[in-house]
Amino acid sequence: MSVHIYYFAGLRERLGTGSEELTLPPDLCTVAGLRAHLGARGAPWDALASMKNLKAAVNQAMAKDDTPVSDGDEVAFFPPVTGG
Questions:
Q1: Is CATH 3.10.20.30 what the domain over 2-78 is classified as, yes or no?
Q2: How buried is residue 51: exposed, middle or buried, by Cβ count under 10 Å (0-12/13-18/19+)?
C-alpha cells in the first residue's frame, strides 16, 4: 500500500520535508498506525507519535486516530499552532 504524506508548519521544518510518498506494511490501516510507523524512525520523526493535539486529514477530510488509511490516500499532519 502506498500513500502520499504531507507535513505542515513547524512539523515540516522539524522533519526537513514537506511531503513524501511511502509504501506501508499491509497490516497498517489507521492514522494511529501510520503515526506509530513514522515515529519508529527515531528522532525527529518520533514527534509524530508523541505530539499532543496533532491534527490529521485523510483525503482532505479531518481524521481521527481510528480513521482508515488505504492505498492511494493523501494523509496530512498539522501540528498545534499558536497565533498572536
A1: yes
A2: middle
Strand partners, 56: 63, 77
**Cell (9 digits) for 28:** 497498517
pLDDT in tens, 6-55: 999 989 999 999 999 999 999 999 999 999 999 999 999 998 888 888 99
Which residues does 69 contact at the CB level (< 8 Å), separation at least 6? 1, 3, 24, 28, 29, 30, 31, 33, 34, 58, 75
